């Protein structure tokens, strides 16, 4: 395995606003790390490597899983919550540019908020 691809330990609170994005990024990095091995990594070893790359608080969640796939699904349930579109639209509509915030930063914040709104194309 390529040590340069080894991700940091996942030490994340599910309640943080960016937990979903951080978890998805971490999982992509972890799977790239597993794929960098010259020999295939099978189920039980994958699961042990996953346990080694999460914090002690998160590892208690993974103890219920019998396979690697179940462990990843438990992590997804913990960190990837369904989006409340009504709340997302409220956050977008009430977002204001703060003093000292550049226009680029504000547009980036609006773009991030708009992703969760599920806007559809208007058809006539």
TrEMBL record:
Question: Which InterPro entries is this protein grouped with?
Answer: Retrotrans_gag_dom (IPR005162)
This chain's protein is named Retrotransposon gag domain-containing protein
Query: What species is given as this protein's source?
Result: Scyliorhinus torazame (Cloudy catshark)
Q: Which domain of life is it from?
A: Eukaryota
Retrotransposon gag domain: residues covered = 61-121
């Amino acid at each position: 395995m390529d040590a340069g691809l080894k991700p940091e330990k996942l030490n994340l609170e599910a309640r943080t606003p960016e937990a979903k994005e951080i978890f998805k990024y971490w999982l992509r990095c972890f799977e790239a790390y597993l794929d960098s091995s010259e020999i295939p990594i099978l189920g039980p070893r994958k699961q042990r490597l996953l346990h080694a790359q999460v914090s002690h608080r998160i590892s208690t969640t993974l103890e219920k899983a019998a396979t690697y796939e179940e462990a990843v699904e438990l992590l997804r349930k913990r960190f990837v919550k369904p989006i409340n579109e009504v709340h997302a639209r409220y956050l977008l509509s009430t977002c204001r540019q703060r003093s000292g915030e550049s226009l680029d930063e504000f547009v980036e914040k609006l773009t991030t908020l708009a992703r969760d709104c599920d806007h559809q194309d208007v058809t006539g």
